[in-house]
Every structure is written in C-alpha cells, then in structure tokens.
Amino acid sequence: MQLRHLAVRLVLAAAVLAPAATARDVYVSVSTGANDAPGTKEAPKKLLWRVIGEIQAGDRIHVAAGVYDGQGKSGVMPQITVGDIVIEGGWNTAFTERNPFTNLTIISPPPDGQGAGVKVFHVESPDNKIDKVTIDGFCIDRGPHNYYFSDGPSGANQRIEGHQDNTAFGYQALNVKKSGSDPTVVCIGNGSFTVKNMILVNSPWWGIYVKCGGAGETIIENNLVLIAGSRGIEAIGGGGWGTPTIRVRNNTIAFVHTFGSDGRGLSLDPKGGCKAIVEKNVIAFCDEGGITVKFAPEADALQLTDNTFFFCMKGDFNVGGSPLANAGDFDDELVLKVCKGNTHALPAFQAKLDHGWVDRYTAREQDYLRTGKITAAEIMAVRQSIGLTEFHLQGYEKAYPDYASLPQKRPNYSHGRYPHPMKVGEVMDYVTAVVPALGQDGDRGVQNATR
Description:
- This protein is an alpha/beta fold.
- Helix content is about 10%, strand content about 30%.
- A hairpin with a 2-residue loop joins strand 24 and strand 25.
C-alpha cells in the first residue's frame, strides 16, 4: 500500500514538473518555409500570420529575416488572445544566429497596397487577464498602407508623375478615416508585457501602446520609433488592475506628429500604485511634449534618469499638455524623488538617418516658436548639423534662410511617407535610411545590439 501511495505521489509530482503539453517552438521563414511544413528549424513554416492565428499558450515563435505582408496582404497579424508566449524576429534563415538589426524581419504590406488601418500586433483577451507576452525584434513599416492626400512631395500645387493620388482635395494631411487610428503594437491585459528591439516607422497613430496590471514588471526596451501620428509610446497601468512597474529604457522616439493637440513622445499615467521608471531614452522632435503625463506624479511614481531630450514643442516634460520644462530646468520645475542625469541636447542619431527625416520635419507648417521651448536658432542648428543651410520647398523657386521666413499656408506634409513621399512601387531602404541611427547616442537611446 505504501509503495502504491509513493507511486501515485511520484506520478503527480512528475505531472506538476512536466512542461505544458501545448508548449511549442515554432520556426517561420518566408524565404525557405512551406505552409505544410512541421515548423522545425530544418523545415520552417512560411506564413507568419497563419502561425500567429494558431498560436497557443506556451509557444515560442522564431521568425527569420524577410518581408511578411500579413493576412490578405494587409500588413497586419491576427489578434493574440493567449499568454505565456514569445514572438521574436531577427533570426537568419538557418536559425543559428539572431540579431533583429542585421537580420531585418519586416512586416509591411506590399508597396502601395493601401487601406489597412488596424493594429499590426494586437494582444488582448476578452477577459483582460492575458499575461507574459513578449514581442521582440520586428521592423514594421506602415507607410505603404497609409492613405495620403496628394500624389507627390509637398509643393505649390504640383502633381508629380508616379505618385499615388488618393483625393482631389489637395496636399494637406493624412486621411485618418481611411488609414485608421490604431497603434502599431498593442498589449492590453492584467499582466506583464515586453516589447523590445523593434523598429517602427510611419505609424499613422501610436507606435506602441501598453496597458498592464498585476504586480510584475512590464518592459518597453530598445525600440526605435520614427514617425507616429499621435504618440510614440504610451504605457499605463490599467485602473484597478494591480500595481505594475513599467520600465521604459533605451528607446529612441522621434518625429511624433500631431493630430489636433497631440504629438507626445512618451505618454505615461503613473498613479494608483503604478510606477514608471524611465531611463536612458532619447526623445526628440515631438509636436507636443517629450514626456507627457495626465496628472502630476506623486512620490516615486515616476523616475527619470539619464534621458536625452530635444526639440519638443511644449517642453521636454509637461503635465496635461501644458508647457512646463526642458531637461535643464527639471530640478527647479519637477517634484520627483528620482530625477537625475537628464539632458537637453542635440542627439547624434539624427545625423545618421536619411536627411529627409529632419528636412521634412523642420519645414512643416507648425508653430514651433510659439511656446519659446524651441527657437529659430535651434531649428537652423539642427539643419546645419547635417548640411541643410537653407529651406528649399518643393514647388517654390525661392530659397528661405530660416523657419520664420517660410511662406504661410504652405503644403504641410506632416504624415507623408518618410523619409520622402514615395512613388508607386517604391520601398524604403531601411539599411541606409534607418539602421545607421542605432547606437549613435552612447548608452542612451536604442542600441545596435539586442537587449
């Protein structure tokens, strides 16, 4: 009898220690895979959207370099409703080496396959209890499926042959109704999430949105967000979902445009036991603020350490959208227990990008000078640092010496495809237009190695 009881206990113990039966390692390669393959290293699956549509709790999805255009060539993936998963890009085709910044794993619709405006990665379950989800190592370009007014570079009512024409109404802005208002990466649930090693460009609305809970740590780390139509990154705790710690570190966020009164680099709302630790980020070129919080944080709910800020129209830090302070005045203006090493300085990454990013952003019809946080001299210093000494607007014969002298009511190409409006069939050269910005600001901002 004792032996029988011992055997039962051993069986139960083995069942507890054994991994979940559904846990799988699945390998995906658009270039070497096949739909009917088993999904091993030697015989990977081909279509990422199919694998994500069948994902199970415990799965680890490993994705090789290549361009994945999503279900129906939409550039989006099926919604994820299970937790305890990892989806990671950046593998070479042999699955022997991983580096998301050399083995670019790109999610994008085909060139000018326009019309999709939903979330690319959407993690959310009906009961909001999803937990332990990691999205790691993808390059997502939403430019080809955004709808834009006009068919060419900004100019004096010029039409440029070869550009897509979507409307008869001119050259002003992004058609939001067609392009959608969903963030590129969304994680919502009463648990912890990790979003890291991502390159996100041309997001029509937010880049990364995370709403988390529990008592664990959510990490948003080592991401490069270039162009977001409202907020580069937003990270908040769900009301009544616990007391999470949100760590935002080593991200580079730039060229965050405004829809109405928005344009936030990093949006936070630390309250109710939620804590935000913000460290070693570079946040620059944002139409509203570098870091914006809804209400002034109390006690140690917000910590700011070793961040670099630059060219944020309403200040490097603001509360509720109201102008507040640049980093040099943080000690005088902010009541934070941990606030050290933050600087207001021209970041180095911008000199390594395709110069079209800075050229177009600083030429837009936006009242940078109104709040006094950005000066005309600062605008020209940015441009001159990459050899742009004058403004040459497409369609205008005259050259303009500074921002203040630019013509009013000029075409505002704030949400055209960057680094320049692209012709039908044209794709971005990420290796020359984006990747050189990685790791340019020392230990601050996005690094050129995974973390």
